[in-house]
Every structure is written in structure tokens, then in C-alpha cells.
Recover the amino acids of this structure.
């Protein structure tokens, strides 16, 4: 929940410790994103990628990290880069499919 009590991410069921931590970080990143704190959100998503590299959260974190970059710079290279990275590293991920519209 964000400071106003608005739900920003939901986790249901049990997750192993690392997956749970990554999801908590994703929630904090989402709150920052929804509050238009783009630099903070980008940093939080990047930390998920760095600190929890073997979790299922990484493809989504990569996607949103680069969306934050784009929204700050309006340089489409950030979106093209994430489309390429996701297609190479996580070709079966739904986040790869979502980013495919940005492929150069």
C-alpha cells in the first residue's frame, strides 16, 4: 500500500524468502512509480535486478526500470534496449512479449 492506503501490488500465497524479498522491493518501486518519483522507482527496480538476480521478479523489474528511464529522458533507446535484453535473457517471459512492441 502507498501512504494513502491505495493498494499498489498484491502477493498471494507463500513465496521462498528471496522471491518474497524481491516482491516487497517491487511493491516499493511501484509506489514510487505511481507517485511519479521516477528516479527513485528506477533505482528500486535496478536494485531488484542486482540483489535478486535469480528471482522471477527480474524480467518485470527490467521492464519497469527502463520505462522509468524513458519517462525521465523521453529517449526511446531505453525501451529498445529493454526489448532486446528481455528477448535475449527471458524470451518466454510475458514482459518480453510486452516489450516486443519497442523492438527496433
Amino acid at each position: 500500500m502507498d501512504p494513502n492506503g491505495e493498494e499498489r501490488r498484491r502477493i498471494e500465497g507463500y513465496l521462498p524468502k528471496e522471491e518474497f524479498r524481491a516482491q516487497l522491493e517491487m511493491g516499493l518501486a511501484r509506489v514510487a512509480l505511481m507517485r511519479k518519483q521516477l528516479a527513485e522507482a528506477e533505482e528500486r527496480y535496478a536494485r531488484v535486478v542486482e540483489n535478486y538476480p535469480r528471482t522471477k521478479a527480474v524480467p518485470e523489474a527490467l521492464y519497469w526500470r527502463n520505462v522509468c528511464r524513458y519517462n525521465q529522458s523521453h529517449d526511446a533507446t531505453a525501451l529498445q534496449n529493454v526489448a532486446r535484453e528481455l528477448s535475449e535473457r527471458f524470451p518466454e517471459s510475458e514482459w518480453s512479449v510486452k516489450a516486443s512492441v519497442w523492438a527496433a
About this structure: The chain has five helices and no strands. The helical segments are 17-34, 38-51, 58-73, 77-89, 94-99.
